[in-house]
């Protein structure tokens, strides 16, 4: 079986290609011939070198306008003539017009749910989202919320028999694994601190200022706490200014963007992790990939009872009221004072190998067996 994953952009900015890189090796081990179409960027090539073995075939394209990108991708797919193509996101640049090749479309967010006050853009986005169902031979939804939305839409346009798989993100155990290091020089400066680690975009709608405001309250209660904010984003500089203006330098550090292979070192420092969420369609629909990266470290995870984190953690998470910085501070204190030092979730259920086995079975049941049966 041959599959071509179609991605767009730089993985540093557009995370959807994590799916292709994560599943590439496991699918290859299951007997698939795996091809990935990616934009030619330094970060993409670095991540391919980190995650993919020599059996995975990469097809790089230069940065260009959307029409040229579509034409290049369509040409590559037609030349390869695979059994399946997998669109890691249904955006205009990822469209490939390839005739009778089976097309699998993943939805990892719901853009129409974020455009309530922009009617014309909302209409265009809804048309594209519904067209994804018409275009696809099979749908995959990265969250339960998306699965519910697109199942209803399939029924509305009489495509309820179209295969549809609930298919959340996962983690790469070869990269995200506890290092079990003794205290080294870089870790010594954190001795005696209760360290809470966040990995992700430094942006207001990703909870940056909720976390920083919580630290104002937390600092007065717990002198030994430290929040490590790993990543960059649109409000990175504003976040650093907030830290300075509120004298949080001793309880918050922002190391900025960290290469993927270095991230586990920061995770090793963690006594707890945090995954902020807002009570919005955006956060109900998305599947935070950081959640799965946290799991193998088996440390408490502070989050909200919203979307995928609650779906995965159930009663095993530490939950605060979305957007409430004082409640977040209180939950952090409860986490610090609690004897529960690990989540009860089995990380092996959320590896890319496990996801690939699920995918392989779904393909056999819904496409191969159906076709031959």
Sum this structure up briefly:
This protein is of the alpha/beta class and 373 residues long. It has two domains: 2-170 and 351-372, 3-Layer(aba) Sandwich (Rossmann fold), CATH 3.40.50.2000; 185-347, Glycogen Phosphorylase B (Rossmann fold, 3-Layer(aba) Sandwich), CATH 3.40.50.2000.
* Poorly predicted regions: none
When the domains are counted, the total is 2
> Mean pLDDT, rounded to whole units?
92
CATH hierarchy class name of the largest domain: Alpha Beta
CATH superfamily of the largest domain: Glycogen Phosphorylase B
Strand order of the largest sheet: 3-2-1-4-5-6-7
Task: Explain the layout of strands and helices.
Blueprint (H helix, E strand, L loop, with lengths): L1 E5 L11 H12 L3 E7 L2 H10 L5 E5 L4 H15 L3 E4 L14 E6 L11 H17 L2 E4 L2 H13 L7 E3 L18 H4 L5 E6 L8 H14 L3 E6 L5 H10 L6 E5 L6 H7 L2 E3 L6 H5 L3 H6 L6 E3 L3 H7 L4 E2 L5 H13 L14 H21 L1
Parallel strand pairs: 1-2, 1-4, 2-3, 4-5, 5-6, 6-7, 8-9, 8-11, 9-10, 11-12, 12-13
Helix pairs in contact: 1-14, 7-13
List keywords for this structure.
13 strands; 14 helices; six-stranded parallel sheet; 373 residues; 2 domains; Rossmann fold; 16% strand; alpha/beta; single chain
Structure description:
The protein is of the alpha/beta class. The chain has 2 domains: 2-170 and 351-372, Rossmann fold; 185-347, Rossmann fold. Helices cover 41% and strands 16% of the residues. The protein has 14 helices and 13 strands. The chain has helices at 18-29, 42-51, 66-80, 119-135, 144-156, 185-188, 208-221, 236-245, 263-269, 281-285, 289-294, 307-313, 325-337, 352-372; strands spanning 2-6, 33-39, 57-61, 84-87, 102-107, 138-141, 164-166, 194-199, 225-230, 252-256, 272-274, 301-303, 318-319. The strands form 2 sheets. A 7-stranded parallel β-sheet has the order 3-2-1-4-5-6-7, sandwiched between helices. α1 links the parallel β1 (2-6) and β2 (33-39). α1 (18-29) packs across α14 (352-372) and α7 crosses α13. The two termini are 18 Å apart. The model has no long low-confidence stretch (mean pLDDT 92).
């Amino acid at each position: 079986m041959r599959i071509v994953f179609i991605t767009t952009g730089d993985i540093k900015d557009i995370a959807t290609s994590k799916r292709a890189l994560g599943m590439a090796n496991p699918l290859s081990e299951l007997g698939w011939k795996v091809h990935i179409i990616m934009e030619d960027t330094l970060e993409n090539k670095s991540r391919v070198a980190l995650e993919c073995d020599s059996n995975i075939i990469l097809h790089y394209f230069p940065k260009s306008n959307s029409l040229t990108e579509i034409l290049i991708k369509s040409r590559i797919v037609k030349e390869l003539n695979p059994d399946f193509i997998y669109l890691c996101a249904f955006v205009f640049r990822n469209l490939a017009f390839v005739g009778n090749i089976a097309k699998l479309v993943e939805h990892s967010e719901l853009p129409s749910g974020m455009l309530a006050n922009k009617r014309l853009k909302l209409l265009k986005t809804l048309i594209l989202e519904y067209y994804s169902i018409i275009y696809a031979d099979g749908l995959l939804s990265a969250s339960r919320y998306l699965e519910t939305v697109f199942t209803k839409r399939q029924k509305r346009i009489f495509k309820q028999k179209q295969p549809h798989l609930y298919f959340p993100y996962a983690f790469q155990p070869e990269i995200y694994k506890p290092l079990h290091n003794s205290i080294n020089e870089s870790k010594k400066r954190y001795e005696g601190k209760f360290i809470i680690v966040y990995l992700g975009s430094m942006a207001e709608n990703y909870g940056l200022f909720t976390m920083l405001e919580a630290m104002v309250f937390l600092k007065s209660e717990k002198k030994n706490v430290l929040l490590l904010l790993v990543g960059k984003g649109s409000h990175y500089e504003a976040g650093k200014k907030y830290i300075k203006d509120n004298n949080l330098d001793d309880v918050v550090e922002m190391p900025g963007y960290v290469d993927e292979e270095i991230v586990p070192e920061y995770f090793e420092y963690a006594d707890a992790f945090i995954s902020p969420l807002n009570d919005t369609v955006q956060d109900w629909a998305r599947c935070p990939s950081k959640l799965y990266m946290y799991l193998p470290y088996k440390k408490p995870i502070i989050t909200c009872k919203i979307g995928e984190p609650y779906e995965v953690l159930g009663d095993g998470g530490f939950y605060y009221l979305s957007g409430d910085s004082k409640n977040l501070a209180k939950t952090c204190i409860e986490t610090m004072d609690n004897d529960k030092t690990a989540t009860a979730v089995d990380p092996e259920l959320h590896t890319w190998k496990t996801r690939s086995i699920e995918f392989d079975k779904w393909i056999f049941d819904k496409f191969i067996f159906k076709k031959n049966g």
